[in-house]
């Protein structure tokens, strides 16, 4: 992840079933995600366990849970 973060973010997006479009890649979406997920950015904005309830609707949380559960199926990981 550290040696090729852009490549890994693209692979992760594909794995989750929502790959980047050519326009998104050319528009810098991958770089924007990397910046938002950087330690510098995360330290600035912080976050708390359970804080997603203040930012996501129940429907959004359920959708994320369904995607993660589907992707983990058969991996041996428990969700």
What does this structure look like?
This protein has 79 residues and is mainly alpha-helical. The chain has a domain at 5-39 and 55-73. The chain has five helices and no strands. The chain has helices at 5-15, 22-26, 29-36, 39-45, 58-72. Helix 1 (5-15) packs across helix 3. The longest helix is centred in the C-terminal third of the chain and has 15 residues, at 58-72. It starts with a helix and ends in a 7-residue tail after the last helix. The relative contact order is 0.09.
Write the layout of secondary structure elements.
Elements (H helix, E strand, L loop, with lengths): L4 H11 L6 H5 L2 H8 L2 H7 L12 H15 L7
Summarize the structure.
One of its GO terms (molecular function) is sulfotransferase activity. Helix content is 58%, strand content 0%. It is mainly α.
């Amino acid at each position: 992840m550290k040696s090729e973060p852009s490549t890994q973010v693209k692979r992760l997006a594909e794995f989750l079933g929502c790959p980047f479009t050519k326009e998104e890649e050319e528009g810098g979406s991958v770089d924007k995600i990397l910046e938002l997920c950087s330690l510098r950015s995360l330290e600035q904005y912080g976050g708390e366990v359970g804080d997603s309830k203040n930012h996501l609707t129940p429907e959004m949380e359920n959708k994320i849970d369904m995607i993660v559960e589907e992707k983990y199926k058969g991996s041996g990981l428990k969700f």
